[in-house]
From TrEMBL:
Name of the protein this chain belongs to: Beta-glucosidase
Highest rank taxon of the organism: Bacteria
Stored InterPro entries: GH (IPR017853), GH_1_N_CS (IPR033132), Glyco_hydro_1 (IPR001360), Glyco_hydro_1_beta-glucosidase (IPR017736)
Binding sites annotated in the UniProt record for substrate: 17, 118, 162, 291, 398, 405-406
Record key words, sorted: Carbohydrate metabolism, Cellulose degradation, Glycosidase, Hydrolase, Polysaccharide degradation
EC numbers on record: 3.2.1.21
Example of a GO MF term: beta-glucosidase activity
GO cellular component: cytosol
Lineage, top ranks: Bacteria, Bacillati, Actinomycetota, Actinomycetes, Streptosporangiales
Amino acid sequence: MGLPDGFRWGVATAAYQIEGAVAEDGRGPSTWDTFAHTPGRVRDGHTGDIACDHYHRWPEDVALLAGLGVSSYRFSIAWPRVQPSGSGPVNAKGLDFYDRLVDGLLANGISPAATLFHWDLPQLLEDAGGWMNRDTAYRFAEFACLAAERLADRVGMWMTLNEPVVVMAYGYAFGVYAPGRTLMLDALPTAHHQLLGHGLAVAALRGRGAREVGLVNHYSPARPRDEASPDDRRAALAFDTLMNRLFTDPILDGTYPDVAALGGPDPAGYVRPEDLAVIAAPIDFLGVNYYQPTRLKAPGAGAPLPFEMMGVPGYPTTGMGWPIAPDGLLSLLRTLDERYSTRLPPLYITENGCSFPDEVGPDGTVDDVDRIGFLYAHIAAMRTAVDEGVDVRGYFAWSLLDNFEWAEGFHPRFGLVHVDYETQRRTPKRSYAWFRDMIASS
């Protein structure tokens, strides 16, 4: 069957992970600025204050994109750069940066794909309750208006949220990401408020001329430790509900899965009758981020969650110890296609990648053959899904550059391009050349 005409090959990044310049041109603090500067939160005290200095070096990075031959580039717009306090007037200098970036991409024949929220919530909104506060959804729609009014004439593809499940789970439930709250299942209102913000932002974007609008979810196929164990199967079902269905069912079906049965607050306390119609506004595509499957077992007595996560045996692993499981991507795409059937919009693989401890060799090259193997296997899995009839329209590798990898700081390296954080020297890895050649021959 082959890939569809106009298939988009791209790479992805996120603002806080690469931009730096956190106090320049009127940018306000985000939850990640606060979190990273709190002792003990990020490995070795690393912060995104400078990161890859993309804010100043973006022309060099656009040249790398052009050399790669991608048709599209997925980046995020830093909310605190555009609206420093999370509400009120726009910071024109902040939007000027994205103006320059978008124009630079277009001048090189690269289609901009903008994500509005990749986890960098303005700190003042978090001080008012963050995503636990319903008002944040309305502030997000206001931000979407400001971004689209300036950029929708040139940015064709818009993504409202990136991985809202990670914000809910890692940020508000487990406390390992910003803002570092440990609410466990009491964090469930953050799911609804993010989804409400998504629905409101869809309307705001469409009202200002945005052509393609969707969101990006993180998915991880749930595998019970023991298929023969009813308790382990229930644990896997609970994980699947929270990880894979909670942020998809409301958008595509207009209903929530039965999260009340898992524990946590009664949804009637934070879901209003009119909300689901807003959330279920039609979208043009669904972004799929995939890294690994998850193995589950039944929790012990008194555990705060209805499942316990485990390692997945039987696979080679990345530098972070994650299983390299391209069959998980294939099963995920099949599941989405079967679960949502005719209601499923076109899919884009919006993130897929791996970290290895890459180093520049004596000859000045980075021979990351393991990454090439990872990308080859996952792209092959995607192609199999397309051959079976799953409507996948694009693939974005994570990431263009080595960058600030959240709570792990600068230790993991996910990039096709190596970054020396002391000198900011960019060195394309062997995987960069492989991806370039693969795109050219596809």
